[in-house]
Amino acid sequence: MTATAHETTAAPGPAPVDRPQLGLAAGLAALGGYTVYDATTLEVGFADPVGPRVFPFVVGGVLVVLAVLLVVATLRGSRPEAEDGEDIDLDTPADWVTVGKLVGVLVLTIATIDVLGWAISGALLFAGAAWALGSTTLVRDVLVGGVMSVGSWYAFYVGLGIPLSPGLLDGIL
């Protein structure tokens, strides 16, 4: 046997913690905690055995349990993996330009819904979101958005009895 230097391989260190997953868990826990707290402030009638608190308690509790499970999985090194059918790279950074466009379209919708009404603002919301996501067929997007927003306006107003703002189309819709 010849004398050789001992070859040592460095043991792999712990996997880096996926901070966005922990952020999601914190958001879930905060939302669940607030939902449970808010459920405690609901007034319950004496003749209602179940009351309006049950559903918020269940939803809030499930959110908190999911947050705890996500923290445990994240700390154990679990990392989301792309499905076989997905063609995205999880290491690619977010496209903040597209996010900014979508936020701008949403803010425009919120700012104009009282004046223009849901039918027009909804059509602009659909067309603007399609544009922000890369669509180049503006006329088709506005038409599809118009059909969808007018249809949803009638579904809410006639089907559910919830009036949405008609805006400029007051008396026409």
From TrEMBL:
Cross-referenced InterPro entries: DUF1468
Keyword Membrane recorded: yes
Entry-linked Pfam families: TctB (PF07331)
Membrane spanning stretches: 54-75, 105-133, 153-172
Domain DUF1468: 24-164
Keyword hit for Disulfide bond: no
Keywords: Membrane, Transmembrane, Transmembrane helix
Protein name from the UniProt record: Tripartite tricarboxylate transporter TctB family protein
Species: Nocardioides deserti
